[in-house]
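Example record used in the benchmark description.
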Amino acid sequence: MKTVLVFIALLVAVQSNKLVPKTVAKVKDECSQTIKVGKGTYTFYTCPQDYYAAVKMCKSKNVKGNLLSIHTHSFHVKLLEELKHFSNTEHEVWIGATKGSWSFTYYWTDGSQMDYKFWAHGSPSHGFFSSACVLMETKDPGYWRDVDCSTVRPFVCEIV
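Model output (structure tokens):
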């Protein structure tokens, strides 16, 4: 019985290493796709990360950016069209909106004003006492949902 459990544990460890590369450089090299939206260039990372790892990746010295901020509906629609070209089995990506505990206010990680929102019905759903991070659906119409930040999903960085 112990041998079987050890085998299963090793198998899970090996599989998780294949899904989530260990270094920022590996994620950048193995998982990134360039997206053009209007005059801007963005990077779509297909290797899923939790929200905090995605923020760290976008802010790293290899990328020098932020998780994506969305300020207009027209940009949102154009971005959604570009994301549809990529295989994304999760059908959701992290964007740079979040809120901390003890707050109802969502903000962009790049510090810009949250002047546009596209919430799904029932969202935002996290209350005053819990933190939350925002996913954007990559299928029409691209609604946003607030979820636990430890959820693992692909993400989009904007380069500054």
